[in-house]
Structures are given as structure tokens and as C-alpha cells.
Write a structure and sequence with these properties.
Length: 79
């Protein structure tokens, strides 16, 4: 089974802060959408719904990690 990497699963201890940021910070919302889009692409590749080279999949995973790091910094700066 493919594991979800959405922010609420990644940072359950910060769920309330994530909700607050989605209501108050447009930059956070845009970055979260970008993160979710990349995560969705990775899930489709891992589920073999879409074909992709290993290099492309790795690039997507690096992008997801970078976005997650930036989002996490925004989350902890708000706490």
C-alpha cells in the first residue's frame, strides 16, 4: 500500500497550525498545493498508474522533500 505524505499525516502534532495557516497565509496555501501535486504525481508513479523514468521519480521526490522542509519551517515559525 502506498503511504500518504500529505502534511496532516506527516505532521499530525501540527494539524491545528496547518489549518490556521491555510486560512491566513496565501503563500503557505500555494506551497501546500504544490506539495500535494508533487506527492500525487509520485503516488501515481508508485502505483504504476503513470509511467516515469527512475530519474524523474527521484527528481519529484527531491522536490517533495524541499517543499516539505519549507512548509515545516513555516509551521514551526507560527507555533
Amino acid at each position: 500500500m502506498i503511504e500518504s505524505h500529505d502534511l496532516f499525516h506527516e505532521f499530525p502534532e501540527h494539524a491545528e497550525t496547518i489549518r490556521k495557516l491555510t486560512l491566513a497565509n496565501d503563500d503557505f496555501v500555494k506551497m501546500m498545493r504544490d506539495y500535494d501535486d508533487v506527492d500525487h504525481k509520485i503516488q501515481r508513479i508508485e502505483q504504476r498508474v503513470e509511467a516515469a523514468s527512475m530519474m524523474y521519480e527521484e527528481e519529484l521526490k527531491k522536490l517533495r522533500v524541499g517543499l516539505k522542509d519549507k512548509l515545516y519551517k513555516m509551521i514551526v515559525a507560527t507555533v
